[in-house]
Design goal:
The complex is a heterodimer of chains A (611) and B (53).
Chain A (H helix, E strand, L loop, with lengths): L3 E6 L6 E6 L2 E7 L1 H4 L9 H11 L8 E4 L3 H14 L5 H15 L2 H10 L8 E4 L2 H10 L6 E7 L6 E9 L2 E9 L4 H11 L8 H7 L8 H8 E3 L5 E3 L15 H6 L13 H29 L3 E5 L6 H10 L4 E4 L6 H14 L25 H10 L5 E2 L2 H13 L4 E4 L13 E5 L6 H10 L9 E4 L3 H4 L11 E4 L36 E7 L5 H14 L3 E6 L11 H10 L4 E4 L2 E4 L12 H4 L4
Parallel strand pairs in A: 1-4, 4-5, 6-11, 11-12, 14-20, 16-18
Antiparallel strand pairs in A: 1-2, 2-3, 6-7, 7-8, 9-10, 13-21, 14-15, 15-19, 16-19, 17-18, 20-21
Helix pairs in contact in A: 3-4, 6-13, 7-11, 8-11, 11-12, 15-18
Chain B lengths: L3 H26 L16 E2 L6
């Protein structure tokens, strides 16, 4: 009888559930994919149900439920925050205290009630693991390393915002921490807010904006906002920030320092925003590099594991790899709070004696992050027939070749195969694919499919065996969490026409794969092996055979503002609502021109909130 | 509490009578937020106690 642990994250950002059996990850999924509410923080009833179904069990067979943070410790931090900002922080006090007194403090009861409501069997004992321990466990235990330095950096858990650990075998030893309010995640979120984006979801837009600007504010940030020590530790000057006191991130001191009020959301971006983004990105990179170097010095390890929201800053991750302090860097694909569910479960599992079986196979324990639901061709067929869809059925190799041929004609393809990804990135299970060589593909996909702003670049998937020809990266990047330069051999000299500035810079052709090359020649890379994802590897190989190019544009299968699609039904609806040309779902190939006319009651674009 | 205004008033009283004095006192003794910057300090790391849950 395997020892089964169910991990849960909920109530703050990105609720999720994960199931671990004898130390091996069986299933994991974010609640948003089921409820269609982006970053859904409600109790992950659907995700839990899915995990139990995937394992073929009821709650009665689960040995323990692990919750990803310690609510009592968090409550003490909330109280300390409210007290420390008195007497000016009444608004925050009035807003947050009642929730804490009613249910947030007693999370175990809330989780218990949520599990009881599932009617899936008797509820097992519920234990809590600290937030950063959950992150650290999600970073180290599934990594392919026997031992490693582990660094977790985020906004805040209970108290810790930055933690350093030493992972060895099935043990994780805490070494040191930095506490709230001193937080790199909060610093980055403050600039996210100030540049007019949404906190907690807009940070990667700031990262994407940075290459357009110059770090002219770096000195101001380093002298006034953050005192960064040689060893990577730091404190923020709270006089400039509002988040202790209230609901917004930055105050008047911040405005004075950077010359004015924040940008209003959805208003035009100016050079100031580009430069602010470049500046906070540079400071964050410097902090992360120092923290990584310190981790190497303290542990003596040559391998590094990363998790926590700031580990989603793949540009900074790429700088760590580039610096070469470590000869291997592994990042938990669900580096944010959803991964906490997995980490909490793993922490409990390994403490009870479970081993890390994947180490023997020299692999990581994330199964390519393909840990969500799959749908059989029978289920897919029923869904397509109900919609009156017109399709052709074919075997995997023929499907791959047909898709590759259409991609080579610059068609945009919705690709839906196998188990859904866990974590924020689409990795070739729920992806939209395109030809990266086409200089118009970036615009096409931006405007016609994603209906989104034009400054964010797309990301490439590349056959692992050919990655070195196209990118300056000499380690695997299976989860699209590392940014590196496009290889010199692929770069093309650009001539800036008169007056090309700001976001127009993106339109200049910089390489043989322009759709995935950012204005500074960088790319956010996914390396694909046959072992991790045979279906996706097959279509990449077919495209390579047809065109000589082993790279495809891989963007997530969804419209802007909605979570990545989960079911074949959602895939078909997204296909029909947008200008995607082809849909390859399971063993079925659909061409847009063949489909019956699409009709909808209301304007779906108004129903989905902007992100 | 059903009456929102009454709840707000009670919270306000709690805030002024308890939270504020506690907060001000704490800041005199030891700031839990460790807000003071120290240019001469070598590090801001807080060492962890041996593993506990």
């Amino acid at each position: 009888m395997p020892d089964i642990v169910l991990g849960i994250s909920a109530f703050y950002h990105d609720s999720a559930a994960a199931l671990v059996a004898d130390g091996a990850v069986v299933a994991a999924a974010q609640e948003e994919r089921f409820t269609r509410v982006r970053h859904d923080s409600a109790f992950p009833a659907n995700a839990v149900r899915y995990c139990l179904r995937e394992a073929g069990i009821g709650l009665g067979e689960v040995a323990a439920v692990a919750y990803y943070e310690d609510p009592r410790l968090k409550f003490r931090r909330v109280l300390a925050t409210l007290a420390s900002s008195a007497p000016t922080g009444f608004a925050a006090f009035e807003h947050t205290l009642p929730q804490w007194l009613s249910w947030k403090r007693r999370i175990a009861d809330t989780v218990r009630r949520g599990l009881e409501a599932l009617g899936a069997g008797p509820v097992p004992r519920i234990v809590a693991r600290r937030h950063h321990e959950s992150h650290a466990a999600s970073a180290f235990f599934p990594s392919p390393y026997e031992s490693a330095a582990v660094l977790c950096i985020d906004g805040v858990g209970e108290w810790a915002t930055t933690t350093l650990w030493h992972g060895r075998g099935t043990g994780l030893e805490p070494l040191a921490e930095i506490r709230f309010p001193h937080s790199l995640g909060m610093l980055y979120s403050a600039f996210t807010y100030y540049t007019g984006f949404k906190v907690d979801s807009g940070e990667y837009k700031v990262m994407g904006l940075a290459p357009y600007g110059e770090p002219v504010y770096e000195d101001a940030i380093r002298t006034k906002l953050i005192d960064l020590k040689q060893d990577g530790s730091f404190r923020l000057d709270m006089d400039y920030f509002e988040y202790l006191r209230g609901q917004v991130m930055t105050g008047r001191g911040f405005e004075k320092l950077f010359g004015g009020p924040r940008r209003q959301p959805e208003s035009p971006l100016t050079q100031r925003e580009f430069d602010l983004a470049a500046s906070v990105q540079k400071v964050t990179e410097e902090a992360v590099l120092r923290l990584a170097r310190n981790a190497r010095e303290r542990t003596g390890e040559t391998k590094l594991c990363l998790a926590g929201g700031v580990a989603l800053n793949c540009v900074a991750n790429g700088k760590i790899v580039e610096r070469g302090d470590f000869d291997g860097v592994w990042i938990q694909p669900a580096a944010g709070d959803a991964g906490g569910a997995l980490g909490a479960a793993l922490a409990v599992a390994h403490e009870s004696g479970a081993s890390r079986a994947h180490l023997a196979d020299k692999r990581d324990g994330m199964s390519g992050a393909l840990l969500g639901p799959r749908y059989t061709d029978e289920q897919i067929g029923r869904c397509l027939d109900a919609r009156g869809a017109v399709y052709r059925r074919m075997a995997p190799q023929e499907l791959a070749e047909q898709v590759a041929a259409r991609l080579a004609e610059s068609k945009v393809v919705g690709w839906f195969q196998g188990r859904m990804e866990f974590g924020p990135r689409a990795l070739g299970a729920r992806s939209i694919l395109g030809d990266p060589r086409d200089p118009r593909m970036q615009s096409t996909m931006n405007l016609k499919i994603k209906f989104r702003e034009s400054f964010r670049p797309f990301a490439p998937s590349v056959l692992a065996e050919h990655a070195g020809d196209y990118f300056a990266l000499d380690q695997p990047s299976p989860y699209m969490l590392l940014v590196a330069q496009v290889a010199a051999a692929q770069q093309v000299e650009t001539r800036s026409p008169q007056g090309a500035a700001g976001l127009d810079l993106l339109k200049l052709r910089r390489s043989t794969i322009p759709a995935v090359t950012h204005v500074d020649y960088s790319a956010r890379i996914q390396t694909v092996t046959e072992q991790d994802n045979p279906d996706y590897h097959r279509v990449l190989a077919a495209f390579h055979a047809a065109t000589g190019c082993p790279v495809l544009v891989n963007t997530s299968f969804n419209v802007r503002g909605e979570p990545i699609v989960n079911t074949p039904e959602e895939a078909y609806v997204c296909f029909m609502r947008t200008n995607i040309d082809v849909l390859a779902v399971g063993g079925f190939l659909l061409d847009k021109a063949d489909q019956p006319q699409w009709r909808e009651e209301s304007d779906w674009r108004e129903a989905i909130p902007l992100d | 509490m059903r009456n929102r205004r009454m709840r707000k008033a009670l919270l306000f009283v709690l805030y002024i009578a308890v939270v504020t004095p506690v907060g001000l006192l704490l800041r005199l003794v030891r700031d839990p937020m460790r807000r003071k910057l120290n240019a001469r300090a070598h590090t801001y790391w807080i060492e962890s106690a041996p593993a506990e849950h």
